[in-house]
Design goal:
Strand content: 35-45%
Number of helices: 7
Oligomer: single chain
Shape: globular
Number of domains: 3
Distance between the termini: 69 Å
Radius of gyration: 29 Å
Mean pLDDT: 84
Largest sheet: 10 strands, antiparallel
Number of strands: 22
CATH topology of the largest domain: Nuclear Transport Factor 2, Chain: A
CATH architecture of the largest domain: Roll
Helix content: 10-25%
Length: 415
Amino acid sequence: MTRMSRHPTLLAVLAVWLLALAAVVLVRPSAPELVATAPRSETEPGAAPPAVPPLRTEPVALRRGDTLVAALGRLGLDHRASTGIAQALRAEGADLRRMRPGDGLEVTWTLEGEPVGLRWEPSPWLGFAVVATDGGWEARRAETRPDVRVEAVGGEVRRSLFEAVETVGESGQLVLELAEIFSSEFDFTADSRTGDRFRFLVEKRYAGEQMVDYGQVLVAQYLSDGRILTGVGFEPAGGRLAYYDLEGRSLRKGFLKSPLAFTRITSGFTYRRPHPILGGVRPHLAVDYAAPVGTPVRAVAGGTVLRAGWNGGNGIQVHLRHHAGYETMYNHLSRLAPRLRRGARVDQRQIIGYVGSTGLSTGPHLDYRVKKHGRFVNPLNEKFVPGQPLGGAELRRYLEQARALVRRLEASAPF
């Protein structure tokens, strides 16, 4: 069979593929229409559609760092066919540099072993189909928008926040979102308690009836020890999305509550602690966080690097100077972040190093210290600089939106 003679049937296969690519996201009536059209068949009006020839389909296993041409070569396609497919995909706007293991990729062959088509689904919202035609390889793109639904999620902490979120059928990604929203208000490592409760209104992105991933958290609340923390997402005119409390004050304060996202405290701030290495009772003017070697350490606030390197019993240390007379120290690191040096500026949340056990240390942990005007203070008790409030028309717009979201959250997931 020549490529010319099979052209109509392969175009029919392409049309079927495009419908298959879109089917999963077009199940719901409210889903957007497919933004793609199949090429026209050369069949005469009124004639029966051509029969699809016998074909076999084979998945392509993508490896880390793979190119499409390399992956197809392993499957047995020659260089000319592989590059022709790649060129056809690029012509339809495919970014082949974003191919990664786990993508849906498959090649269709005739029973004689000739490649005649390829299908690639880089995401649930985007797919490409390529077929061999008499003029070379021809590609079509099928694209949809996600079906976004706002849903309430709520639960109670028993052993850990991660377990509580997973118990109600959600992903640990929501825990990270919660920790980020309240990162200046609440230290989930030190302050979480059994019986704490949480609730969200969160966007979920669906393909058909399958939830694929999360969108924006619209509002979140966390109840601990009788105190309810509230964070409402809001985008001021000309600004970026940020989270605010019920009075319109930004939750993004000058300092984070912790330099690590999630871990556990093994030793608190005290003036009398038995020293595990030197012996005797000595002050421990720090908070120790247990974490695996290599855990990223964040700067709790923007500032300037005073020291970045070895410092005796502190091991590898980063020492930062901040505004309002504050300094922070991060000790026993395994290594520094790239290009971190004395005099460099760092931003809040910037990775400055990685947990280790250098210096006088009995195991992997972060020794975290805070000074204010030259004196060590307990970082767990310190009241840092509050966030900036909204004002004027923006505040009025925010309060209207926030009250509506909180009412909806309270009705959907009562504490």
